[in-house]
């Protein structure tokens, strides 16, 4: 299946599912090599409470584990579990040799501060890439395990043959999950990077310069056709529910008429994020295997 599909008279639709399948195939091969060495990768997820969306996301991740041969398990803690109990659970998983990756599903109930729990994860098992050690390595230009969504975007651009070196890139959104780590990854590849957000004055003046535009603001329809440079590559990370439909931050049909390529929502960045989580679980296992063999 092609990674991009054309619609007559428009730009290209970046097929996130096809790209994700390619990455999963590569990860499955790596997992097979690890299994041959007697080391099957294992991913442990932790859910606090009974959030239906969190449960759905974890099921999607476990299904991906099954496809690539990664062993998966889930630890479900009760709604009122304190941060001490969450940290104690994480520490137990840190000690297990059959667990190579640990993922704490966010948000925590009541939007409780997750930072202490995230910092308790062994950086070598932090497949979500949010531990301060891994974030620091990213900023220092020594990428280890990094956040999966920005890593998936960078991987997709490379797979599509789009070099970031010297390219004008604009990121709309400055979260710790997407905007900030993606800016660092692009700078590490010598892109010229501007980071904007919903409070940026005259946002269009910035986005019109972008050869690569990534939008992760959580505002449906924020990016209009006249805000996009002709020939740009546009990655829409937004996931919004509008009138019973899931839509992104980009006016997809209109932007597709001027851009070189655009990711749809759904079916664009989402599958890349999940497949990158699988890849990073394999990477974490490989890193741990190297340490054990020293």
From TrEMBL:
HAMAP family: THF_DHG_CYH
GO biological process: L-histidine biosynthetic process; methionine biosynthetic process; purine nucleotide biosynthetic process; tetrahydrofolate interconversion
Ranges where the Tetrahydrofolate dehydrogenase/cyclohydrolase NAD(P)-binding domain occurs: 147-288
Pathway: One-carbon metabolism; tetrahydrofolate interconversion
Subunit and partners: Homodimer.
Family, per entry: Belongs to the tetrahydrofolate dehydrogenase/cyclohydrolase family.
Origin superkingdom: Archaea
Catalytic activity: (6R)-5,10-methenyltetrahydrofolate + H2O = (6R)-10-formyltetrahydrofolate + H(+); (6R)-5,10-methylene-5,6,7,8-tetrahydrofolate + NADP(+) = (6R)-5,10-methenyltetrahydrofolate + NADPH
SUPFAM superfamilies: Aminoacid dehydrogenase-like, N-terminal domain, NAD(P)-binding Rossmann-fold domains
Leader sequence residues: none
UniProt keywords, alphabetically: Amino-acid biosynthesis, Histidine biosynthesis, Hydrolase, Methionine biosynthesis, Multifunctional enzyme, NADP, One-carbon metabolism, Oxidoreductase, Purine biosynthesis
Protein name: Bifunctional protein FolD
Protein residues bound to NADP(+): 173-175, 239
Gene Ontology molecular function, alphabetical: methenyltetrahydrofolate cyclohydrolase activity; methylenetetrahydrofolate dehydrogenase (NADP+) activity
Domain Tetrahydrofolate dehydrogenase/cyclohydrolase catalytic positions: 14-128
EC number: 1.5.1.5, 3.5.4.9
GO CC term (a single one): cytosol
Function of the protein: Catalyzes the oxidation of 5,10-methylenetetrahydrofolate to 5,10-methenyltetrahydrofolate and then the hydrolysis of 5,10-methenyltetrahydrofolate to 10-formyltetrahydrofolate.
Organism of derivation: Methanothrix harundinacea
């Amino acid at each position: 299946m092609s990674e991009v599909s054309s619609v007559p008279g428009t730009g290209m639709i970046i097929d996130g599912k096809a790209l994700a399948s390619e990455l999963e195939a590569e990860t499955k091969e790596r997992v097979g090599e690890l299994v041959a060495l007697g080391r099957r990768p294992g991913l442990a997820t932790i859910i606090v409470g009974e959030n239906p969306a969190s449960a759905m996301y974890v099921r999607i991740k476990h299904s991906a584990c099954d496809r690539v041969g990664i062993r998966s398990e889930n630890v479900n803690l009760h709604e009122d579990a304190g941060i001490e109990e969450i940290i104690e659970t994480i520490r137990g998983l840190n000690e297990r040799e059959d667990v190579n990756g640990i993922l704490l599903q966010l948000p925590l109930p009541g939007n409780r501060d997750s930072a202490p729990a995230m910092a308790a994860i062994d950086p070598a098992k932090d497949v979500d890439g949010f531990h301060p050690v891994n974030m620091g390595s990213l900023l220092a230009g020594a990428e280890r395990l990094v956040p999966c969504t920005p890593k998936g975007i960078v991987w997709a651009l490379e797979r599509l043959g789009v070099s970031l070196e010297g390219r004008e890139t604009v990121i709309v959104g400055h979260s710790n999950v997407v905007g900030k780590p993606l800016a660092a990854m692009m700078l590490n590849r010598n892109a010229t990077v501007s980071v904007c957000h919903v409070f940026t004055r005259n946002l269009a003046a910035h986005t019109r310069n972008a050869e690569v535009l990534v939008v992760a603001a959580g505002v449906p329809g924020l990016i209009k056709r006249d805000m996009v440079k002709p020939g740009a590559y546009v990655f829409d990370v937004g996931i919004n529910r509008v009138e019973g439909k899931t839509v992104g931050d980009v006016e997809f049909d209109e932007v597709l008429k001027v851009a070189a390529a655009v990711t749809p929502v759904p079916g664009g960045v989402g599958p890349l994020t999940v497949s990158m989580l699988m890849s990073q679980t394999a990477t974490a296992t490989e890193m741990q295997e190297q340490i054990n063999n020293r």
